[in-house]
Structures are given as C-alpha cells and as structure tokens.
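Running this now, will post back.
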Amino acid sequence: MNTPLDHKEKPPFSYLVKVGHISANAVTVQVEADEREREALAKLWQVVSVGSLKAELQIARWKKDGVRLKGRVKAHIVQACVVSLEPVEAEIDEMLEQIFVPEGSKLARMMTGDTAEMVLDPDGPDLPETFVGDTIDAGDVVAEFAALAINPYPRKAGHEFTDHIEADETPNGGKPNPFAVLKDWKTKE
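Update: finished.
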C-alpha cells in the first residue's frame, strides 16, 4: 500500500513543530491538507483520490525532553473496488497518539527483562519515536495514521468474486496429497 519515502524527500503532507516552543500545557492545532498535498497523498497511498485529510491535535511536552501528539485524524478517500474497479468511497476516523523523544534519549530504549529478551506488550503503548534536531513533522504522523486505516481490499457493496471457482483435482473430493508429485521420484545410488 505505502511506498517508502526516501528520507531526503519531503513528505507529501507536512506540518513542522519546533520542539523548543512546546510547553507543558497542551496546545490544540488543526491541520488540513490542501489540494496539492491531497493529490500527492493519493499517489503515495495508491488510491483514486483523497477528498480531505484533516486532524485536530493536542501538542504538549512529555516528561523532560519528549513531545506528545494526541488527537483525531479524519479523511475521505476514493479507492478502486478490488472486484469491479468501480470507485468506492471510504471515511477514515482514527485516534492518534504518538510520543517523540530526542535521538539518544534513554526513554527511547526498549525495556528488557532479566534475560535480555525484548519485552513487548501488544496492548501496551507504542515505543516513543525518535527525532533529530529541534523539529517534529506532525503532518507526516497524521498522514501515516490515515494510511494505516485504509482498507487494503475495498469492495463495493453487492460485488463478489463469482466467476472464479477453484477446481477440485482430487478424486472423491478429498484433500490433495502434497507428496503425490514425489511418487515417481527415485534416488540414484
């Protein structure tokens, strides 16, 4: 779905936040993609079009030198149906929460147990992302959360795969024997 961006290339949707200007009190920011940015996102996400992409974010300090982005991402996109290629409209409405810490911060390191194994809690919070310098791109985070919510197999209502029926190549309808191809194979001695 996503094509990786070269790290030197500017992301299609960008909203830069200076870390030094962030206070402990959350500041609410509203961001919205313009037409050029929506066209670039449609190309990146490989969808027919992006009608809108907007987010309301609360940006605040986290611990000593980290930053927390929290909010809601909304988008309207049009995709091609995987069955008929007809346009399928979709609404994206996702909660966003991301923590950033400076590169090299001890808060960015993975916690390990006594056995030096990585301890990951699938229901727990994500690890903080790291940033270099004094700027975080909140727009890129918004676009990433929207992209992760895109249905990879959109289907228009009422459309089904009906023309394809897999053939039953085994006698009596049983499961095929995976070793049947080896029945005539002989070893050379």
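The chain has one domain: 16-182. More later if anyone needs it.
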